[in-house]
């Protein structure tokens, strides 16, 4: 026997060409939960800020209103006293005082009418009542 016959016929084997049968990984898809959550938090934060700012504005307006209340009351008292003075001047003009008549005439030219029948006490009470509103 031939020694070549006793040895198995060994052929050199080359590895097969490496080909990837794996599919590329699909891109990871994200849900809409995170963007919607962020949008909701942004809207909620904005609304909270608006409430905070508007409540501060409301307090400032309330303070301004209360600060002006005294001025409005004083203006009502002043108007009542001026109405009483004008009524007294009108009564003087009707009784024959020349200076009072001249004053009443000039006031009428400027469009100011005087009610001589309104008593001074009633006018003062009406002015104070109007200022209290």
Structure, described:
By secondary structure, the chain is an all-alpha fold. The chain has one domain (38-131). The chain is 68% helix and 0% strand. It has helices at residues 3-6, 33-94, 98-109, 120-131. The longest helix has 62 residues, at 33-94. The radius of gyration is 50 Å and the shape is rod-shaped.
Keywords:
133 residues; mainly alpha; 4 helices
Which helices and strands appear, and what pairs or packs with what?
Layout: H1 3-6, H2 33-94, H3 98-109, H4 120-131
The helicity comes to: 55-70%
The stretches of 5 or more residues where confidence is low (pLDDT under 50) are: 121-133
- How many structural domains can be distinguished in the coordinates? 1
Backbone CA Rg: 50 Å
Total number of helices = 4
Tell the overall outline.
rod-shaped
Strand portion: under 5%
Structural class: mainly alpha
The average pLDDT is 82
Q: Termini distance?
A: 134 Å
Number of strands: 0
Largest sheet: none
What sequence of helices (H) and strands (E) makes up the elements?
A: HHHH
Could you give a quick summary of the protein structure above?
By secondary structure, this protein is an all-alpha fold. It has 4 helices and no strands. Helix 2 (33-94) runs antiparallel to helix 3 and helix 2 runs antiparallel to helix 4.
């Amino acid at each position: 026997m031939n020694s070549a016959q006793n040895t198995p016929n060994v052929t050199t084997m080359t590895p097969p060409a490496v080909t990837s049968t794996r599919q590329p990984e699909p891109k990871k898809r994200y849900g809409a939960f995170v963007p919607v959550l962020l949008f909701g938090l942004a809207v909620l934060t904005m609304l909270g800020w608006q409430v905070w700012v508007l409540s501060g504005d409301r307090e400032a307006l309330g303070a301004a209103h209360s600060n002006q209340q005294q001025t409005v009351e004083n203006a009502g008292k002043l108007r009542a006293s001026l109405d009483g003075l004008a009524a007294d001047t009108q009564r003087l003009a009707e009784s024959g005082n020349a200076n009072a008549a001249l004053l009443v005439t000039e006031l009428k030219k400027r469009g100011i009418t005087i009610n001589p029948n309104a008593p001074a006490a009633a006018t003062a009470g009406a002015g104070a009542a109007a200022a209290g509103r």
